[in-house]
Automatic annotation (TrEMBL):
This is Membrane protein. The lineage of its organism: Bacteria, Pseudomonadati, Bacteroidota, Bacteroidia, Bacteroidales. It comes from Prevotella herbatica. Residues 104-145 form a coiled coil. InterPro entries: Chaperone_Skp, Skp_dom_sf. The keyword Transcription does not apply. The keyword Lyase does not apply.
Amino acid sequence: MNKKNIFKTMAVVAVATMAMTSCDQSAPKLDSKSDAAQSNPTKLKIAYVEVDSIMSQYKFCKDYSLTLQKKGQNIQSTLAAKQQQLQAAAANFQQKVQQNAYTREQAEAINAGLQRQNADLQTLNQRLSAEFQSETNKYNNALRDSIQNFLKVYNKDKKYTLILSKAGDNLLYADKTYDITNEVIAGLNKSYKPSAKMAATEKK
């Protein structure tokens, strides 16, 4: 299963509270306030995080990726086995029909049964696919929340105005001086504690 496909919709953006300087109360006019803000811009403190590095190095991502991969493989195996059984039954039915092994009523009954099995297989496919998508969405939400919650704590001391996510070419240029990826990954991994279910998956 392609890991990038699972996580392709993920982007990490954490926005810290911006400290704005108070406007001059003695100048109530809107134009005067705008001029003052332009002439005395607030100094921004910006950092960014490499999303791809988080995906490959954050233990939570590794563990959940393994869980999703195994779940996807189990779904594929289940559907493939049932599809093969149905195809074998259909082929056997066609062969018996050609050999005139059934009466018309028997053939119609068997054919109807095969159609029901095919419909059941399609329903199973849709259900398992929906379950897998739900699990993927659950993971994406948990990943986003874990990163945002960590950055809230992390930024109490760092006091960045903005912490941006860098994924692919969404930032045309970023000075490595502002790259805090390694710090964030180290902090995330330090605070990460896998659930009992996740720990059991790792041992298998």
